[in-house]
Amino acid sequence: MATLIAFLLLRDSFPDKVATHFTLDGTADRYSSPGTSVGQYTLVFAIETAGAAAAGISSRLPVIATRPLWAFSVGLATATTYILVALMWSISRSDEHTMQLPSLQLPLAVASGAALGAVAWFISRKRA
Fold first, then answer.
1. 26 near 102, Cβ under 8 Å?
2. To 10 degrees, the CA torsion angle through 70, 105, 27, 33?
3. Which residues, other chains included, contact 108 with Cβ-Cβ below 8 Å and sequence gap of 6+?
């Protein structure tokens, strides 16, 4: 939801082509249309959701054994959302030839994912 809301708020400021893939130093090296890029982002979330749901459904373990899966799924979704919103914000602030994702964004995405994954871990502990 956060990614779709960010897309709707920022889409008028996107150039005709937006960066959809980056090198390790944050330089854009592949581009798509804004609609295609949000479709790709939504596909990433669908794959994450399907994988977590399949693992959870196939698990015949007690609730306490599924805590790591729950925490990992929440952390992964949080980190993915953070990085995709950061990408959209960076895209909206640049033209299509100078797109650069600040290198600090990846560690911040991992930290936010770890923080919310820990919250999910403790919440699931109370339910177990």
1. yes
2. 60
3. 82, 86
Distance CA 15, CA 45 (A): 24
Model-level pTM greater than 0.90?
Answer: no
Cβ contact 112:31 at 8 Å: no
Mind listing the pLDDT tens digit for each residue in 69-96? 778 888 888 888 888 777 777 776 666 5
**Three-class secondary structure assignment of 62-75:** CHHHHHHHHHHHHH
Q: 56 CB contacts (<8 Å, ≥6 apart)?
A: 66, 69, 70
Cβ neighbours of residue 114 under 8 Å, at least 6 residues apart?
75, 79
Question: If 0-12 CB within 10 Å is exposed, 13-18 middle and 19+ buried, where does residue 33 land?
Answer: middle
pLDDT tens digits for range 7-59 = 788 778 777 777 777 777 767 778 888 888 778 878 887 887 777 777 666 66
